[in-house]
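User: quick one - fold this with flavin mononucleotide bound?
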Amino acid sequence: MKIIIAYSSKYGTTKKVAEQISQSLSNHQAEVSDFKSITSDKLAKSDFVVLGTSIHIGKSSKSFIEFCNNNIETLLSKKLGLFMCGLEKEKFAEEFAKAFPKELINHSSINLIAGGEIIYNKLNFLERIILQKMKGVTTDIVELNETEIVQFAEKINKISL
Ligand SMILES: Cc1cc2nc3c(=O)[nH]c(=O)nc-3n(C[C@H](O)[C@H](O)[C@H](O)COP(=O)(O)O)c2cc1C
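Assistant: Sure. Structure tokens for the protein plus flavin mononucleotide:
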């Protein structure tokens, strides 16, 4: 099975999770790519698509949602898995519901909330102020759900068999 893992990542955590998933796919070779580099043709030739996005200020990026909507017919014709990176546990359900078009959430066979990371020295000035004022965050945070990430990949291995 041809698997594409398309991610939307601002500072690299969602990309890292996409790569972790790919490395745990023992039964199949997967291609990991920034969603911006994925052509409609490539999507059409895949059997299974995994879409992953991070959440910043409550939302996934506008261009990622546009990519999903522009390719919705193709995505709805594939086996689909969705994952999200974020750090606000109490908002995860609400954020996930907004992170992808509703049709894709209804269609996907597996979902994952992967947790997230803050690498403080990668943030710009405004983001540091936002995090400090709103959340009191002033240092790195690493809260990835490693077990769930591996379990998500294992489920893909089983679905694909
Ligand atoms: C400025 C800023 C705003 C954020 N806002 C949210 C948020 O609203 N909800 C949430 O769950 N996580 C939020 N996060 C946490 C990110 O989702 C987390 O850092 C994630 O790992 C980022 O992944 P990326 O590097 O792939 O973009 C925020 C992080 C930053 C730096």
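One thing worth noting: The beta strands are 3-8, 30-34, 48-54, 79-85, 110-113, 115-118, 141-144.
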